[in-house]
Specification:
- This protein is an alpha+beta fold.
- It has two domains: 1-272, no CATH class; 276-370, no CATH class.
- 41% of the residues lie in helices and 17% in strands.
- The protein contains 18 helices and 13 strands.
- The protein has helices at residues 5-15, 26-32, 41-49, 59-65, 84-96, 103-109, 113-126, 134-142, 151-155, 163-167, 186-189, 199-214, 219-227, 233-241, 264-269, 284-287, 302-305, 346-359, and strands at residues 36-37, 70-73, 79-82, 132-133, 172-177, 180-184, 247-252, 255-260, 276-279, 315-318, 321-329, 332-337, 366-370.
- The strands form four sheets. A five-stranded mixed sheet has the order 9-10-11-12-13. Strands 1-3-2 form a three-stranded antiparallel sheet.
- The longest helix is centred in the middle third of the chain and has 16 residues, at 199-214.
- The two termini are 38 Å apart.
- It comes from Streptomonospora alba.
- This is Winged helix DNA-binding domain-containing protein.
């Protein structure tokens, strides 16, 4: 079955609560998107708000407080918000990649696989019945002579030594204390936590979930989104093959890709859309397929979206394609349309700017169109 690229975009917009917007909460959005990146808390709030017909300021923090979401290091080693009952599948596949066993990782962060195992055991013990700040957790660890030399790495905001522990379900972030992050055992903090399933069970949950939001997609696109291409290729192929007739293949722009079999009829019937949306920084619509997806983002414009230090700009989406970027400056929202790209209708951009302002409980900004 051949699928038109514009139909793919329209289908993804619908599946991601972007056209139409959903009558949904933060947990439902995070579940559908297979997580919402939360390195920048305000970006996570925006990602939820742009998908809700009636956005509510603070929706993400409320869902975290109710235990409907958990914050942990997940896809690509970045902080994400995930429903606790769904998180284990993605974390299990991240753990199965065993990134910390690669020589390059060991050289960069100075810990052997055996030491990571010891660290996991020690952290599990320290967090067994309490929630600790980073300072408290590190103090408890470096008091043990085995971990004293890791003091600097453990205190680093990059948290490289803690990420493998998150993937193994040893820790997650807890409620902030006096503005400082805390850490806890997921099973102690989250009643909905179900632990980590075995790898085949995890793949059977995670791959269809991903394709249900970002399909059609290749195994390589899935792995780039999940582990930055760290899954062993035979294992990756086996995961997809193991799903059998739950998946179907389609052709998009001359390339074969996978969808969920249950989505075939809906995808084939989908028609292009002219919908305009303003999406915030690090939005999953961009991160799901990745900024190298030239069907969504022209290669010439990629540096304007994927910036230095891993920053992903807020984007203008028109008809499913990224047509520009935007930023706020005081009471002004400035939209920069990419060179050679038709500017979206001003009325549509103004409506989007008003929606974002309402979600943040701010006055409606003045729109300035550049390019």
């Amino acid at each position: 079955m051949r699928i038109d690229r514009e139909a793919v975009h329209a289908w993804r917009l619908r599946r991601q609560f972007l056209e139409p917007r959903g009558e949904c909460g933060a947990a439902e959005v995070a579940d559908r998107l297979c997580g919402v990146q939360a390195q920048v808390p305000s970006a996570a709030e925006t990602a939820v708000a742009v998908r809700c017909a009636e956005p509510r300021p603070g929706a993400v923090e409320e869902a975290l407080a109710r235990g409907e979401l958990m914050r942990t290091w997940a896809m690509r080693g970045t902080l994400h918000l995930l429903p606790p009952e769904a998180a284990g599948a993605f974390l299990s596949l991240l753990a199965a990649a065993r990134t910390w066993e690669k020589p390059s990782w060991q050289r960069a962060f100075g810990a052997s696989p055996g030491e990571v195992g010891e660290l996991a055991e020690a952290v599990g013990g320290l967090l067994a019945d309490r929630v600790l700040t980073r300072e408290e957790l590190v103090a408890g660890l470096v008091a043990d002579s085995r971990f004293a030399r890791m003091d600097e790495q453990l205190r680093s905001g990059w948290s490289a030594l803690l990420k493998p522990l998150a993937w193994q379900g040893v820790l997650c972030q807890g409620p902030a204390r006096d503005g400082r992050a805390t850490f806890a055992r997921p099973e102690a903090l989250l009643p909905r936590w179900r632990g980590l399933p075995e790898e085949d069970e995890a793949a059977a949950a995670a791959i269809p979930a991903y394709l249900g939001a970002y399909g059609p997609a290749t195994p390589e696109a899935f792995d780039a989104w999940l582990t930055r291409n760290n899954t062993r290729k035979p294992a990756l192929r086996a995961m997809f093959a193991g799903l059998g007739d739950r998946l179907a293949t389609v052709e998009v722009d001359g390339r074969e890709a996978y969808i969920r079999a249950e989505d075939a009829d809906e995808l084939a019937a989908t028609r292009p859309t002219r919908t305009v949306r303003l999406l915030g920084a690090f939005d999953q619509y961009v991160l799901g397929p990745g900024t190298k997806d030239t069907g969504m983002l022209a290669a010439a414009h990629r540096p304007l979206v994927s910036r230095q230090a891993g920053w992903i700009s807020p984007v203008v989406v028109a008809g499913g394609r990224i047509a520009g970027v935007w930023e706020t400056d005081g009471d002004e929202l400035r939209v920069t349309v990419f060179p050679g790209t038709e500017a979206p209708p001003r009325a549509a951009l103004e409506a989007e700017a008003a929606h974002i302002a309402r979600a943040a409980n701010r006055p409606e900004p003045r729109l300035r169109l550049v390019g």
